[in-house]
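Homework-ish question, so no full write-ups if that breaks the rules, but can someone show me the predicted structure for this set?
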Amino acid sequence: MSEPKKEIKLLIVDDEVKFLRSISERLALRDFAVTTASDGQQAVKAAKGDKFDVAIVDLKMPDMDGTEVLKILKKRHKFLQIIILTGHASIDSAVECTKLGAFNYLEKPYQFEKLVEAVKEAYEARLRIKFEHDKNRLEEINMLSMGSSPIGILRALIRIDDEEK
Amino acid sequence: MKKAMEVLATEGLIFFGRINAIISHELKNIMATISETVGLMGDLVELAEKGGKLDANLLKSCSEEVIEEIQRGFDTIREMNSFAHSVDEPFKEVQINEVLDLAVKLSQMKSYASGVRQDPPEGSGLKIVTSPLLLENLMYRALTCAYASVSPDKEIQISIRPKDRGVCIVFMGIGSTQPFQFPDENAVRIAKALGAEVQISSSNEECHILLPHSVDEA
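A: Not a homework solution, just the prediction itself:
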């Protein structure tokens, strides 16, 4: 497995502020570019302003819980991979989060190395999904370019781009 | 008292389980924070061993944080212990401010809890004979509804007042952002079992819970 590089952008969401500080410092020492959010609203706002590769999200938070954050982030950022990290783990919530598109579900307390491994795997999954998506898009463009006028191709490209948003 | 026993068997058990789950969640958070902070200290030392500069201030603040979290752990365990003793006897004489204090501490483990200011009771050490577990349950329910009715930066004020018929617990500063939705059906059952009367002010900003001197009077 490849080593994490500086460009891996990580968003960590947890309402335990002291925990958030320590985990973000440790992950930054492992060369991840880390941004933190102490509630769901902050997380959604941060994700809107920046493109993250992986997000680590707590479940029990005030106002907006982790499941809600997961739903919103997956809907708005289709390549973002999300790891749920919770002290409130249950089979039901693990199933629900997986159905909603969570990449992994870890319970607190956990082994830090396992978390780092999960982040790397999530990042690689993101690259794979993005690659597949780009490949399909390229194939679609190739198909359109056969026998279409340049204006027809441009229209089709605009349609594809709109669909991606 | 028979009615109180019935409610204790159902609502009491559910509440006992719920509080245990909340406490275990709190302890997991504490352990996770200690684990990450100690891990960070280890990482910093490892970096220094490899020739990096040791950030003494960060190391110091990590160590202070670990001490604070251990203290938080001790406090949580003390509260867990007090709560466990709530079921030693189904009914007994209790000091109202002690029951209220425990309910406040347990409810503060909720992520959305607001601040609570407890006024000193007008008569010190007011006591009643009641079911400690059901009373904690009722107070806990009132507090969580109070938190849900104000923004987290607001403070809820609680006072304990002696009355001819017993003791009155007053919650103030509630309902400022959302309606104070208390008591629900279960809270009504618990209040009835305790012989308590719940009154909400017409402005929805105050809640009075009047408790009898003894649950026998219920």
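Now go work out the reasoning yourself. Hint: Chain A has a mean pLDDT of 88.
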